[in-house]
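During the no-cost extension, the postdoctoral fellow (Dr. R.K.) reprocessed legacy sequence entries with the updated structure-token encoder. One reprocessed record is reproduced below for audit purposes.
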Amino acid sequence: LGKPTDVVLTLRDVGKAEYLGEIHLTATLWPKSQEDKEQYFQRSGKISDINRRLKSQIWSSVVTIVLVEGKNLLPMDIDGFSDPYVKFRLGTEKYKSKVIYKTLNP
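Re-encoded structure tokens follow.
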């Protein structure tokens, strides 16, 4: 809680062995408010109890995802380019970015 954690997500397509790349990000988990944070840590002084609560606690919060860039994508079209877009799922919600036509470096 409150500590940045580096996460590497390997991109996969079910049924295909082709390497699709990775997403590198840094994530930090924060309580909704300072009051929630103080109340959470006030309940226990033991680290093991804190870790156990972190695993079972459900935080209601806002997630902002910013797509920055893609580099050196594999050409998928006959003309040597691709029309890349990003699909991702957050919980049960599915999202798709806009398509950037005819590029390998959006």
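The longest helix spans residues 47-56. The chain is about 20% helix and 20% strand. The remaining legacy entries will be reprocessed before the final report is submitted.
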